[in-house]
Amino acid sequence: MRLAAIDLDGTLVRSDGTVSERSRAAIRHAMRSGIEIVLITARGPRSVGELAAELGIRGEAICSNGAIVLDLATREVIGMRTIETEVALALVHALRKRLPGIVFAVERERLAHEPGFEADWPLPADTPIADAVALLEEPAAKLILRHTDHEVEGLAGIAEEIAGESAFVSTSGGAYVEISAAGVNKASALAELCEERRIPPEEVIAFGDQPNDVPMLTWAGRGVAVANAHPDVAAFAEEVTTSNDQDGVALVLERLTATCRADR
User: Fold this and answer.
1) Which of 31, 40, 74, 187 is 20 to 30 A from 80 in CA distance terms?
2) Any idea what the CATH number is for the domain that residue 234 is in?
3) Are 211 and 232 in contact (CB under 8 A)?
4) Full residue range of the structural domain in which residue 106 is found
5) 36-59 as b/e: b if 16+ CB within 10 A
6) What is the Cα–Cα distance from 8 to 18, expressed in whole angstroms?
7) Cα separation of 37 and 58, whole Å?
8) Mean pLDDT of the chain, nearest integer
């Protein structure tokens, strides 16, 4: 394998929000063995850049479910695939009509959100807050939806029904539904990055745990789900490793590193 694409929350990152020393060591050894590590996540670029620096990972990271590519050396966004403004506004209006009380956040290089949007992660004090229509005056990489009276699966189903083929709807754990431009997901972004590096899918291993990881797991030559993965995800993986709290990613990377050494 020449490249390992690793999801963060629920996959590499443990339930307490940390990355274990075993996983850190496995990543270092994999990179020394010539395996490129690409973090690929629903997170926005700010926290991804911070974590990558902490782990010593260089190159590029794929953020916002494939909508943003981040240069880890400069912490600059070098690629962004946005939802057409007309499409995003139509979705906001239709979802508001169907689900009164729904609240939105909008993601670009940083997050902005409507009043009443509750984030399950810490936001900077200067995070912009405004109505979604105002926030969409500029194209967005991703829409994030939340409704306190609806389970995430039901909310995602309604969003998919309304979006049709105009956008890509996904979930990545938690109480949120995420909407990207049509055709934009982790698999499409990973395929583009690998094409630039002339790395074929069969030389890529991907790790994930949530439905938004399924396209990536099926595109890669080998898809690995952690034991705590959503049941629908495990069904698409070629391998199920131990859970994120039991260093499942590290276990597989250690095996790959050992294979690389044996082949030399």
Assistant:
1) 31
2) 3.40.50.1000
3) yes
4) 85-181
5) bbbbbbbbbbeebbebbeebebeb
6) 10
7) 8
8) 95
CA distance 117 to 105: 7
Q: Are residues 73 and 26 in the same domain?
A: yes
Find, among 175, 107, 96, the residue nearest to 136 by Cα. Answer: 107
Domain end position, chosen among 144, 162, 181: 181
Answer yes or no: do 99 and 115 share one domain. Answer: yes
In one-letter notation, the amino acid at residue 125 is A
pLDDT tens by residue, 148-197: 999 999 999 999 999 999 999 999 888 899 999 999 999 999 999 999 99
Place of tokens 């439905």: 211
Question: Are 231 and 246 spatial neighbours (Cβ–Cβ below 8 Å)?
Answer: no
Quick one: tokens of 108? 């670009």
Hey, what's the torsion of the CAs at 122, 125, 131, 133, to 10 degrees? -80
Asked if 4 and 256 count as a contact pair (C-beta separation under 8 A), the reply is: yes
Phi, psi for 223 (deg, rounded to 5): -105, 130
pLDDT band for 121, please (50, 70, 90 cuts): confident
> How many domains, in total, are found in the chain?
2
The residue written with tokens 């307490």 in the block is 16
